[in-house]
Design goal:
227 residues; mainly alpha; two-stranded antiparallel ribbon; 2 strands; 58% helix; 2% strand
Length: 227
């Protein structure tokens, strides 16, 4: 609304001109090798997050390689148990992971048996039709259907289903016992850094072993090295 001067003449109000604000673009610092080393040894969740951000946004191949190694080393320091309770929780986490893998294997096996049961059930229907249509051959042909194989498959399926249910209940209780947050959120893939599996067979390492008469300088594996 226009103001009025003392003499009654209308005076236009001077418009207020806002100054344009120029946003400054933040310049991200390119991390150095020393930065990666510091983050690697920090062994904290925050350090991991910083390294992960660089792995997602970095473009320099050499720095990305350093960042990846730093990320793995930082994980190692972070997930090292610091007391008896953390050590127990790490063991629990490993056992949970093992049972989860067992459940996957059992579920695959159960699916195979379930399919077998379905096939045998259909076969039984055909067998019954054959016998009913050939009364004179009923006695001779009856043994061609092995009913006990179907019964065994059904029993096997029941046992595996029961084992899966037990493992799921075991896992649920084990998770309640894990109190250390870092082990609750730790990626299962990181468990490979800890030697917690007492079920490893010597056969697992056979592929890395050299022949007894190997005369190399050790470059093909530690088991072959003469020192």
């Amino acid at each position: 609304m226009a103001k009025k001067a003392k003499n009654g003449t209308a005076v236009a109000k001077k418009p207020v001109v806002k100054k344009a604000t120029v946003k400054k673009t933040a310049v991200s610092k390119v991390p150095s090798l020393a930065d990666f080393q510091e983050l690697a040894h920090a062994g904290t969740k925050e350090a991991l997050e910083q390294l992960e951000r660089y792995l997602q946004t970095g473009t320099d191949p050499e720095l990305l390689a350093y960042a990846e190694r730093a990320f793995e080393e930082c994980q190692f320091f972070l997930y090292q148990p610091g007391n008896a309770k953390e050590e127990e929780d790490l063991i629990l986490r490993s056992l949970i992971d093992r049972r989860e893998r067992d459940i996957i294997d059992l579920a695959i096996e159960a699916d195979e048996i379930r399919l077998r049961v379905e096939n045998l059930t259909v076969e039984k229907k055909v067998h019954d039709k054959v016998l009913s249509g050939h009364a004179g051959k009923k006695k001779a042909w009856a043994p061609f259907w092995m009913g006990e194989f179907l019964d065994m498959s059904k029993e096997e399926l029941r046992e595996i289903t029961d084992e899966i249910e037990y493992d799921e209940a075991w896992i649920a209780e084990a998770w309640k016992m894990v109190k250390t947050e870092k082990y609750r959120t730790m990626p299962a893939s990181f468990l490979r850094y800890f030697d917690l599996d007492d079920e490893t067979s010597d056969d697992d390492y056979d592929e890395f072993d050299c022949d007894d008469d190997c005369d190399c300088d050790g470059s093909c594996g530690d088991e072959c090295a003469p020192f």
